[in-house]
UniProtKB/TrEMBL annotation:
<feature type="region of interest" description="Disordered">
    <location>
        <begin position="393"/>
        <end position="412"/>
    </location>
</feature>
<feature type="transmembrane region" description="Helical">
    <location>
        <begin position="147"/>
        <end position="168"/>
    </location>
</feature>
<feature type="transmembrane region" description="Helical">
    <location>
        <begin position="365"/>
        <end position="386"/>
    </location>
</feature>
<feature type="transmembrane region" description="Helical">
    <location>
        <begin position="250"/>
        <end position="269"/>
    </location>
</feature>
<dbReference type="Pfam" id="PF07690">
    <property type="entry name" value="MFS_1"/>
</dbReference>
<feature type="transmembrane region" description="Helical">
    <location>
        <begin position="336"/>
        <end position="359"/>
    </location>
</feature>
<feature type="transmembrane region" description="Helical">
    <location>
        <begin position="105"/>
        <end position="126"/>
    </location>
</feature>
<feature type="transmembrane region" description="Helical">
    <location>
        <begin position="214"/>
        <end position="238"/>
    </location>
</feature>
<feature type="transmembrane region" description="Helical">
    <location>
        <begin position="16"/>
        <end position="40"/>
    </location>
</feature>
<dbReference type="InterPro" id="IPR020846">
    <property type="entry name" value="MFS_dom"/>
</dbReference>
<feature type="domain" description="Major facilitator superfamily (MFS) profile">
    <location>
        <begin position="213"/>
        <end position="412"/>
    </location>
</feature>
<keyword id="KW-0812">Transmembrane</keyword>
<protein>
    <submittedName>
        <fullName>MFS transporter</fullName>
    </submittedName>
</protein>
<feature type="transmembrane region" description="Helical">
    <location>
        <begin position="301"/>
        <end position="324"/>
    </location>
</feature>
<keyword id="KW-0472">Membrane</keyword>
<dbReference type="InterPro" id="IPR011701">
    <property type="entry name" value="MFS"/>
</dbReference>
<dbReference type="InterPro" id="IPR036259">
    <property type="entry name" value="MFS_trans_sf"/>
</dbReference>
Length: 412
């Protein structure tokens, strides 16, 4: 393992919570596609399958920041376990309702309940921040977590789809639930690395979104999420039009592999430029990388273009988390990180929906105009927010106790 990563895991307990976070994050890439596969096999209704998957994603986007806000206030163990139990109960209800052919409204109610699944990525990043705040190793930690995200999205859908098609329809979502239970309960059993909570009487009750810097990050990542959602849908349609629908998974895996590769390299470097500048360059790079997709004519060219496009994803996400840490008070850090994920989730839903409409109207190749336009919007919002992001919130130099009040006053 490269030296920075070896040093990263020298801290006691770091290997344990990183492993638990990886296990508990697998459902993020398994549950939605697993539900689509399960419902389509059991009922043959792809419209219902897609609507249920969207319900899960939108419910998680709405509920996730509220769960993380409670975590900041009461601690990970007290909040994550009840939230995970609700999500697991809803998952079990969905599997049972689908298997027994219960009414659609039951399926949608259970799908909405799955939205209470905790954001394990934010929880693990908060632990890294508590360990390495103010040191170069925090950059390495965020790089490692971005790589873990990409690994989950490379292998999670393959595992989920494979189990549901080869074994039995409910197998993919069932395994996702098992991963969630194991990850959450393993992570919350590790008390020594759990960040200290910040009860209400120690800080104001406002949301992390009061931070203007976080607002700019979330707005930009709604547009960025639209890139991701559109690329997924259009790539499947593009491969289908060329008679190789199965190749879409390989092509999309290369997109994630490019991001994963860049994330590993980023973790071994010590960036000299200011985070806001690196972030803006990353957003611009993601937007520019969408332009070649407008010219694709075959799958090999598409695979190369997406691999190159992926190289800008992880470094931008790494810098985004560093900016969240700069612009959000420590008492709201987990919530702030979750809001970024929420912005991405909303963008993915919008991008996939718009891309589907464009594909139906003009074909798959025209569909790549959606991520290109989304990239342009992300750049525009990024430039609007750059000046604010280049000025970190005051009160970052001392202890939490010394600066928590000042951090609260400067959130707006």
């Amino acid at each position: 393992m490269p030296t920075p990563y070896r040093a990263l895991f020298a801290a006691p307990g770091s290997r344990g919570f990183a492993a638990a976070g990886f296990l508990g994050r697998m459902p993020l890439s398994m549950m939605g596609i697993g539900v689509v596969t399960m419902i389509s096999q059991l009922t043959g209704r792809y419209g219902l399958a897609g609507a249920l998957s969207a319900t899960i994603a939108l419910a998680a986007a709405a509920i996730g920041p509220q769960i993380s806000r409670l975590v900041d206030r009461h601690g990970q163990r007290r909040v994550l376990r009840p939230a995970a139990l609700v999500a697991l109960a809803a998952s079990a209800g969905l599997l049972l309702a689908a298997h027994l052919g219960w009414p659609d409204w039951v399926l949608f109610a259970c799908a909405a309940g799955i939205g209470s699944v905790p954001s394990l990525g934010a929880m693990v990043r908060a632990r890294w921040a508590a360990l390495y705040r103010g040191t170069p190793l925090l950059h390495t930690a965020y790089s490692f977590e971005s790589v873990v995200d990409e690994v989950c999205f490379i292998f999670g859908p393959i595992i989920s789809i494979g189990l549901s098609t080869v074994w039995f329809p409910e197998a993919g979502p069932l395994l996702a639930g098992c991963f969630l239970a194991a990850g959450v309960f393993w992570l919350t059993s590790q008390r020594s690395t759990e960040p200290a909570p910040h009860p209400r009487d120690h800080h104001g009750g406002g949301s992390a979104l009061r931070s203007v810097g976080l607002q700019m990050l979330v707005a930009t990542f709604v547009a960025t999420g639209a890139i991701f959602g559109a690329v997924d849908v259009v790539t499947v349609a593009f491969a289908d039009e060329r008679g190789s629908k199965g190749a879409a998974s390989v092509v999309l895996a290369l997109y994630a592999t490019g991001s994963c590769t860049a994330g590993v390299v980023a973790g071994m470097l010590r960036p000299a430029a200011a985070p806001a500048r690196r972030w803006l360059v990353g957003v611009c790079a993601m937007a520019v990388s969408m332009i070649p997709l407008l010219l694709v004519g075959n799958l090999p060219f598409l695979a190369v273009a997406l691999f190159v496009a992926g190289l800008s994803v992880a470094p931008t996400m790494i810098t985004t988390m560093a900016l969240v840490e700069e612009h959000v008070p420590r008492s709201h850090l987990t919530e702030g990180m979750t809001w970024v994920s929420t912005g991405l989730a909303v963008g993915v839903a919008l991008g996939s929906s718009v891309a589907g409409w464009v594909i139906d109207a003009a074909g798959a190749r025209a569909g790549y105009g959606v991520p290109a336009v989304s990239g342009a919007v992300a750049v525009a919002v990024g430039f609007l927010g750059y000046r604010r992001l280049s000025r970190p919130a005051p009160g970052r130099g001392g202890s939490v106790g010394q600066h928590s009040e000042r951090e609260e006053r400067h959130m707006a």
